[in-house]
Design a protein that fits this description.
Blueprint lengths: L7 H24 L4 H19 L4 H22 L9 H25 L7 H24 L11 E5 L7 E4 L2 E9 L5 E5 L4 E5 L4 E8 L2 E6 L9 E6 L1
Parallel strand pairs: 1-3, 2-8
Antiparallel strand pairs: 3-6, 4-5, 7-8
Helix pairs in contact: 1-2, 1-4, 2-3, 3-4, 4-5
The protein binds copper (II) ion (CU).
């Protein structure tokens, strides 16, 4: 039966997967929408946590868990790594850091259970990972509370980022253009106009002013956060 003599490594593995699932749920709440890849992974990791707990003596279950966890980490890193550089957007910084820590702990615990390593290291690993997560939560919260909006200048044209979407067209007069980008989401975005050498970081729920000299023409703008490919529009300069 599952509870009889359950290995500490198995408990740590199942617990780490549960924490990862929780972080995926928090990420989707922060985004205000269902993110299919995260939802699918949440379901897979929930099933895995149950499977390793239920069938903990079957080595193939552990092997499947390790392989899927490694794949989840490899697939998620390109989306998560940039978030780690932005503690001022706690709603992405915290879930991404916790997911990475959780997946690493799951991989190590799965390997240790599979190869029946001494359980002496399990507790220090759990405490270390937990302490690191707490520190990162504090860093994220403090950095996010320190973010303030830019002042809005007279004549600024407002562009709103909401539900990971930008307006498709914004029209402004040529010359010295003042833009005021409002991020209405909890998650971070960017405002990028490649052809005008503009790149602005938009922390969650923050507004940024920018001044740029533009000649008449059409300028594509977008958010270059990985996975936000649909967040784009055109600035018509007349
Ligand atoms: Cu974005």
């Amino acid at each position: 039966m599952p509870n009889e003599q359950s290995s500490v490594w198995i408990r740590l593995l199942a617990g780490a997967l549960a924490v990862v699932v929780l972080s995926f749920i928090v990420s989707q709440i922060a985004s205000g929408e269902v993110i299919p890849p995260l939802l699918i992974q949440a379901v897979i990791f929930t099933a895995l946590a149950y499977a390793v707990w239920r069938w903990q003596r079957r080595r193939w279950v552990l092997i499947v868990a390790i392989v899927l966890t490694v794949l989840g980490l490899a697939g998620g890193i390109p989306f998560m790594v940039e978030d780690l550089a932005h503690p001022e957007s706690a709603w992405v910084f915290v879930p991404s850091s916790v997911v990475i820590i959780g997946l690493l702990v799951a991989i190590v615990s799965g390997g240790a259970a599979l190869f029946r390593r001494s359980e002496a290291m399990a507790r220090p690993l759990a405490i270390g990972a937990g302490a690191l997560a707490v520190v990162l939560v504090v860093v994220g919260v403090v950095a996010t509370l320190g973010v303030s909006d830019d002042a809005r200048a007279d004549g600024d044209t407002v562009i709103v980022a909401k539900k990971a979407s930008y307006p498709s067209t914004v029209t402004v007069r040529a010359g010295d253009v003042g833009l005021y980008i409002e991020n209405k989401d909890l998650i971070r975005h960017t405002f990028v106009i490649e052809t005008a050498d503009v790149k602005v970081e938009l922390p969650g729920s923050a507004s940024r002013h920018l001044a740029v000299a533009l000649k008449p023409g059409a300028y594509d703008f977008r958010c270059d956060v990985p996975g936000h490919d649909s967040m784009k529009g055109t600035l018509e300069v007349k």
